[in-house]
From TrEMBL:
This is Thiamine biosynthesis protein ThiS. It comes from Fervidobacterium thailandense. It holds the Pfam family SAMP2. InterPro entries: Beta-grasp_dom_sf, Mopterin_synth/thiamin_S_b, SAMP2. It comes from the Bacteria.
Length: 62
């Protein structure tokens, strides 16, 4: 899978769940969204290795 996050690109040759991907990248699941081919994925969904993934950091202000 091709993963884009913070102006960097990562390549993984295996399918995995969203939380596994975030863990491999050292990212907090509560602070990031997983978008696969334009669709928002929950962290428990399996992302197939042939997909393109965008990780987006969630920001809040208050």
């Amino acid at each position: 899978m091709l993963v884009k996050y913070d102006y960097k690109t990562y390549q993984f040759d295996e399918s995995m769940r969203g939380y596994e991907l975030l863990k491999k990248l050292g990212l907090n699941p509560e602070e990031h969204l997983i978008i696969v081919d334009g669709e928002l994925y929950t962290e428990d969904r399996v992302i197939r290795k042939d997909k393109e993934v965008l990780i987006v950091k969630v920001t809040s202000s208050g």
